[in-house]
Amino acid sequence: MNRRLPLALLLPLLALGACSEVEDAVSDAASDAGSRAGCELAQPAVDAGRSLVDDVTANIDADPAAAQRELSAAADALDLAEPALTGEARDVVERAGAALEELRAQAQAVADGATVDDQVLQAAQDEYGAAAEQLTGVC
């Protein structure tokens, strides 16, 4: 009887351990599904942003106010996808958003009368392009 008592106490602990493994598997599956859903939102937004970034860097001085509006709209699209992303995908979308913000700030400066800083434009364009490529690989 004494041997059965420790075994009886051990069984609930084993059951809890198995439940924990199942819970972890379900949590991982839900996280993966959430990231896939986030990628489905983020990838088209980032892809559309590529042509916008190219256009803005080429024509920012033509209509900086319009560039600001378009860049803000693109950043908003990325912001919608970000909460559904995790890990590397989220980091990449944040980098793309930061590049958009750099371009938006440059458009604001041009609207305020500053001359276009081609180095800032090129750096932001390169960063956005790198983030877009990385997101394609991650998603």
Outline the structure in words.
This protein is mainly alpha-helical. The protein has one domain: Up-down Bundle (Four Helix Bundle (Hemerythrin (Met), subunit A)), CATH 1.20.120. The protein has helices at 4-59, 64-81, 87-111, 118-138. The longest helix has 56 residues, at 4-59.
Concise overview:
With 139 residues, the chain is mostly helical. The protein has helices at 4-59, 64-81, 87-111, 118-138. The protein contains four helices and no strands.
What top-tier CATH class fits best?
A: Mainly Alpha
Overall shape? elongated
Spans where pLDDT lies below 50 across 5 or more residues: 5-30
Q: Write the CATH architecture name.
A: Up-down Bundle
The assigned structural class equals mainly alpha
Quick check: average pLDDT? 82
The CATH superfamily is identified as: IL-4 antagonist (De novo design) like domain
Q: Helicity, in percent?
A: over 70%
> What is the string of helix and strand elements?
HHHH
Count of discrete domains? 1
CATH topology: Four Helix Bundle (Hemerythrin (Met), subunit A)
β-strand amount: under 5%
List the defining traits of the structure above.
139 residues, Four Helix Bundle (Hemerythrin (Met), subunit A), single chain, elongated, 86% helix, mainly alpha
Write the layout of secondary structure elements.
Layout: H1 4-59, H2 64-81, H3 87-111, H4 118-138
